[in-house]
Design a protein that fits this description.
about 350 residues; mainly alpha; 13 helices; disordered C terminus
Length: about 350
């Protein structure tokens, strides 16, 4: 494996697999619509127009901001064969830390905004590191520790905003509103956090493609035995990957609080299912950053286009979720039998 040669070919190989599965998913969707008595062309046209038309692209980008962010949360450790199921908890603690920093820290608004983003990233990273430490120190499988830590994190956050840190006058489990000058600006109707997500995508791709750490991550993902043989420190690598992934999750939570809700609202970050859609997108891309990000944006377009399809053709929006599931299933059937990775 080299880092400087064959780059276009490597990128094409990484994109070819999700492109094939996406095409198969669309074919299956057409067949299901036709068998249901719905005009497939009309339904899919409504879906595409509802997500990518100039009047609707802002909605798709607003959905893509957290979804692509949570795709990175899953893809970063998945590149090394590690599955992070704790995105929900990491996002929630990051969002709460960002909201409380922006509300209560006695500093000017712009500085409060920067510190809130940093606090969100740090909170998410610490929760993810706790899960990774459980595996590297005590042997608790990361698949379990990352998932289970999310429940007390969400529970504690819910308690805090329902009582001691909540906006009691509103009657809802939420914090007070953020100061106006501590909010992310809207950019043509799009959450200003889109800039941060793009920068994070560029950073992850650069690390993956141009650094020794990225190469070591790929080596471990392809063959753990060989990674151990060449001296890659797996526990340290796990801590670094999970810490980075948790920081991204916390940043996503902070972006939603600072650029969309303008307060922390109990349950608002979890109900859309950003974490699980992001995990599916990362699985489609098999952890490769470019493919995973494109899959994340594709899933975001499916979500927003689903609303338009439901209005125009009465096809339930949940149909787009079925399309996502079919794409992941096809990927599993197509590539699940490969034995390129060894534990």
């Amino acid at each position: 494996m080299t880092m400087a040669t064959g780059r276009p070919a490597q990128i094409w190989i990484s994109l070819r697999r999700p492109a094939i599965t996406g095409a198969v998913g669309i074919v299956v969707a057409v067949l299901v619509l036709a068998l249901s008595g719905v005009d497939p062309l009309r339904a899919l046209s409504a879906l595409v127009y509802g997500s990518l038309a100039p009047a609707n692209i802002a909605d798709t980008l607003n959905w893509a901001v957290p979804l692509v962010g949570m795709t990175l949360v899953a893809a970063v450790p998945l590149r090394a064969g590690i599955i992070n199921l704790g995105g929900d908890g990491q996002m929630v603690v990051g969002a709460l830390a960002a909201a409380l920093t922006a509300i209560y820290l006695p500093v000017p608004g712009p500085l409060a905004l920067v510190l809130a983003l940093l606090a969100g990233a740090m909170a998410g990273s610490m929760l993810a590191l706790l899960a990774a430490w459980g595996e590297t120190r005590f042997g608790v499988p990361l698949l379990i520790s990352s998932l289970l830590l999310g429940y007390p994190a969400a529970g504690v956050a819910s308690y805090l905003v329902s009582g001691p840190l909540g906006d009691l006058g509103s009657g809802l489990a939420q914090t007070a509103q953020l100061p106006l000058d501590a909010r992310l600006p809207l950019l043509a109707g799009v959450n200003g956090g889109v800039v941060l997500i793009v920068l994070l995508c560029v950073l992850v791709i650069f690390i993956d493609r141009r650094t020794v750490f990225g190469l070591e991550t790929q080596v471990r993902g392809e063959n753990r035995l060989f990674a151990s043989y060449v001296g890659i420190n797996a526990p340290l690598q796990t801590l670094r990957l999970m810490g980075f992934a948790g920081a991204i999750a916390g940043s996503v939570g902070a972006i939603l609080v600072l650029g969309a809700f303008y307060r922390f609202i109990d349950g608002a970050l979890l109900s859309p299912g950003y974490t699980w859609s992001g995990l599916m997108a990362a699985l489609v891309g098999r952890g490769e950053p470019i493919a995973s990000v494109l899959a994340g944006f594709f899933f975001a377009a499916l979500q927003t286009g689903g609303f338009a399809m439901q209005r125009e053709t009465s096809v339930p929006r949940v149909f787009t979720t079925m399309m996502q599931a079919v794409i992941v299933l096809v990927l599993t059937l197509r590539f699940g039998g490969r034995s390129g990775r060894h534990d």
